[in-house]
Amino acid sequence: MSKKIVILNGSPRKSGNTSALVKAFTEGAESAGHSVTEFFLDKMEIHGCKGCFGGHSGRDCPCVQKDGMAEIYPAVRDCDVVVLASPLYYWTMSGQLCTALDRLFALEEGGKNLLRGNGKSSALLMAAEGHGFEDAVLYFDHLMEHLRWKNLGHVLAGGNMDVGDIAGKQEIQQAYDLGKSN
Fold first, then answer.
1. Beta strands in 16-120 (DSSP E)
2. Cα–Cα dist 144/152, whole Å
3. Is the pTM of this model over 0.70?
């Protein structure tokens, strides 16, 4: 059965190592007949959450702020799988991805929760110079628990400092396989 997959790419580098994981995942998913929509967050205008509790999940753009999230809300609301992709920054996900995740809270507000539960699944793709992914994975696992989404797993690619370092590494194949299996 074909699935709608949304990728939230929190890398600041369009051709970086995280984006190479995203590309491999996308190729795998599309080869299995799934549709993939990627949001390259660094090139989008997305403001931090105001904590105003003014969102209404029943609207196409549930947040009171009008910015790039207006494109993301309906895509996340209507998809089957949300893939979180990020380089490892200070033992966690990039600010670009964290900001977008915070703003997804607007889909939980109001009369109808359009985020938590609803049969969604998620995977985590990360690349880094080092190998200290534990805190990021812990956060992701807790997020999956809170959202009641199926955790499809992680592809964690350490040892990748410069653009292109990930080329030919096993994590590229792992990302492809993860995309194909969903």
1. 35-40, 81-87
2. 10
3. yes
Going residue by residue through the chain, which has 182 residues, state the pLDDT in tens, using 9 for 90 and above: 899 999 999 999 999 999 999 999 999 999 999 999 999 999 999 999 998 888 776 677 789 999 999 999 999 999 999 999 999 999 999 999 999 999 999 988 766 777 888 899 999 999 999 999 999 999 999 999 999 999 999 999 999 999 999 999 999 999 999 999 98
DSSP annotation of 48 reads P
User: Is-contact 93 141, C-beta < 8 A?
Assistant: no
Q: Which of 152, 22, 156, 23 is nearest to 88 (CA)?
A: 156
Is residue 75 within 8 A of residue 39, CB to CB? The reply is yes
- Are 171 and 20 in contact, with CB atoms under 8 Å apart? no
The helix (H) or strand (E) run that includes residue 175 is: helix 170-181
CA separation (Å) from 9 to 37, 57, 93?
10, 23, 10
- What is d(CA 56, CA 155) in angstroms, rounded to the nearest whole number? 34
